[in-house]
Amino acid sequence: MYILFSLLGLLAVGGILFISFAPQFGAAAQGQSLERLQKSPQYRDGKFHNTSPTPMMDESPLLDKVKIFAKFLGGVEGSSPTDPLPMATLTKEDFLSDTSTTPKITWFGHSAVLLELDGKRIFADPMLGQRASPVSFIGSKRFSDQLPIKIEDLPPLDVVLLSHDHYDHLDHGTIKKLKEKTKHFFVPLGVAAHLVKWGVAPEKITELDWWETASYEGIFLAAAPARHFSGRSLTDRDRTLWCSWVLKGAQHSIYFGGDSGYDTHFKQIGEKYGPFDLTLLECGQYNEAWKYIHMMPEQTAQAFLDLKGKVLMPTHWGAFSLALHHWKEPIERLTKAAARQNIPVATPIIGQRWQVGRELPARPWWQPLN
């Protein structure tokens, strides 16, 4: 018994030390950044809050949590594809040789999207790692072993845009490889501390609260509300802010939703900044147990209408299994809901670079796959 308790104690101490010192967990805000976030209308009692009450799964009855955990352990049939997903390959020259200013979009799976607006390259939530996890051997593995282009081969980036600090949106390894080829980072309050710890120069980072705005070489940016949460360890829940983003160029506007449960903020954003030529909204990794922080696909369609969108491109699917549904279920439910309301939906394959305002990439490429 003494040996058992000693081993458990050593494991506990080792875990605490690992979380405290491993760089992938990031860092807590300090100095002026901490003072600024503490003045945010969203911040009270030591953490950020959503506008509407947002119950979390860990507040559910114990039996419900046990059932969900058991389902995760048992797995869900079809949660990951057995067939390889179609993918377009890219080279750096594909981007550098194109001098047109027509907005273009390239999806890297999940929520990682490379936007080209008025000649600027903006990478939103560039999670390009193989696992949505702080370690390489635990957590959901990316459906595809390869990316459309190696991180090292990406062209220079003007902006990296982050919606929040969860592992499926903010990846330590990816940022380490992008920091030298990225001119500026725009992030919600508190997230800068992670980037600084990973070697990003503080002067290259701008932190924004909800409804605050900035500009970058002619591009207008606004951090807008979302209904979600944050955290990278067991002790930092909601210590950083989460947000969505509004981007406006000379003639086109784009909305990037990040992660969010459905709420009234979509209508508020649509009234203030809509209409949007392209609306990027999550449609996957949902469950009734966490319905307040992730939308059901039918709610995604309604959020698009609230935002006054012109074209909907679904994200947060096609790369990782982070919920208890079939991997194709999100896009199937969304496309059906969109069809009922005559919503134009763009469904490019991973790596497909397409132009906003041209013919939509709308082939149901997922249908024949298992």
Automatic annotation (TrEMBL):
GO cellular component: cytoplasm
Coiled coil: none
All residue ranges annotated as the Metallo-beta-lactamase domain in the record: 121-317
InterPro entries to which the protein is assigned, alphabetical: Metallo-B-lactamas, RibonucZ/Hydroxyglut_hydro
Name recorded for this polypeptide: Metallo-beta-lactamase domain-containing protein
Species the sequence originates in: Rufibacter immobilis
